[in-house]
Design brief:
Structural class: alpha/beta
CATH superfamily: 5'-nuclease
Strand content: 5-15%
Number of domains: 1
CATH topology: Rossmann fold
CATH architecture: 3-Layer(aba) Sandwich
Largest sheet: 4 strands, parallel
Radius of gyration: 14 Å
Helix content: 40-55%
Strand order of the largest sheet: 3-2-1-4
Shape: globular
Number of strands: 4
CATH class: Alpha Beta
Length: 128
Amino acid sequence: METKQIVLCDTNILIEFYKNNTTIIKELQTIGVRNISINSIVLAELIYGAQDKRELSVILKNANQLKLIPITASISELTIQLMSQFSLSHTLALPDAFIAATALHHKCPLYTLNKKDFRFINGLELYA
């Protein structure tokens, strides 16, 4: 059996999953649940966006099935580098910097619907 690469998902991908976007659902099935990862920033954004306790419970239950990547000192340092380099020139947002730094640090592609928010970051592979 072929081992697939871990793919880091941006928050917008999981939001579309919860909206039952069939294109996103099919792509996530192709990636495979064992290969889908999120970082703690994505999880925090999903929790923040929960509409009620039921939705929060679903988010937490689903997150337990994914690989959760914590924010380490190395990722924090890389985030600061990205913010220093791109916050003024490209208006890189702090959560996006943490997400990009996580993907760069772990050398995994980032699955996002907002490619324009990341395409200027050298070395960052965007999932196609």
